[in-house]
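example protein:
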Amino acid sequence: MFKFSSQNAFWLVIVIFVIAIMAGNIVYPNAWNKICDLVNNKYGLSLRKIDSQFHLGLDLQGGAHLVYKADTSKIQGISSKEALQSSRDVIERRVNLFGVAEPIVQISEGLNKEPRLIVELAGVSDVNKAISMIGQTPFLEFKKEANENEIKQADPLGFISTKLNGSYLKKAQLEFDQISNIPIVTLQFNSQGGEIFAELTKENLGKRIAIYLDGFPVTIPVVQGIITGGNAQITGQFTQDEAKTLRNNLNAGALPVPIEIISQQTIGASLGKDSLDKMIFSGIVASIALIVFMILYYRLPGLIGIISLTIYIAIILFIYKLVPVTLTLSGIAGFVLSLGMAIDANVLIFERLKEELLVGRGLESSIQEGFTRAWSSIRIGNISTILTVLILYAIGTSFVQGFALTLGIGILFSIFTSVFVTRLILIILSNTKLKNNKFIWKTII
């Protein structure tokens, strides 16, 4: 364990207190904002107010819950897993364009192992609007004429799917035919898509290649030569507005697999709010009981532990806003559990400190030895919990991941406050007149 002089410990504690106060103002900006209003109105200054909010999840804020069935039966060139992951990324990107904060899009399975895409949009109360955000993205694919060996897999028009689909699309643009002035949509693929398109045209010289949107052919040109550069175009009986919409949707992301909505519902925040209110009330009652117990049982060290825990709460809530962490009921449960582990670390330290004092050691020596003996237990306990958190986050669903994330962040900072902050304050007090007061350093029992 590192050793600190009383003077160094004093200045470190001052820095930590300043950081905690600044973090507390960002977590709860009302006090600072009232001061800003008062000073600005009285002295004509322009102090900047703090405007920051916690990111609330679906269960606390309410929103839309959508379940889509994904058809991966005709995927070629990429695995079903890759296609689903690409679709998930596309949906997230498209929803973000509409300003929906922190959308949750996850891959799941139905009763018959059918792939599902579950979309949760916090703060979106209009389910139809949410569906329109996602469902209007077209499924783009290129098909070629089937040969004699492939005719059984062909569609009614005699075409079969190829590797080239919307996942390789780089951008789409609206242009006009120079002769007819009809609007067309030109496509530019990424480097990999360009190579696939060039190979596709090379293998199908003199044959037709069809461009399908949402399962319907929009143009079926004959390949006149090898097309390099990764450029193609969609022609059809488009109006200008239809061509613009198609371009915008394709730029938002063409889905590599077709999807169909099978479940939709609006989630109200009333249940989550009631649960949150009860959790806050129970947390206040528990905090009061904890403060009373720590001070009565551990006296001055107990008070130091409460101060350390207060600093911990201010910093951890600031981190939640900074990251930002989307808070759900399960995430709040992880935060509450991390509070328990933070105070538990202080209890281990104080018990070791008490044992050293009872055998007749001096205060400074007892503090050093108490922290050294407690550190091994704190370290092993927290490492095992962090490993569990990593596993939960890696394989869990969104609610489990929210619990794991808040718990993991909490554990890391609880080690800092219990082992570092508490120790610094104890070192400072051990070099004051309080060190000779045996009553405040020992427990009643």
User: Anything to note?
Assistant: The first helix runs from residue 6 to 27. The chain has twelve helices and 13 strands. The mean pLDDT is 79.
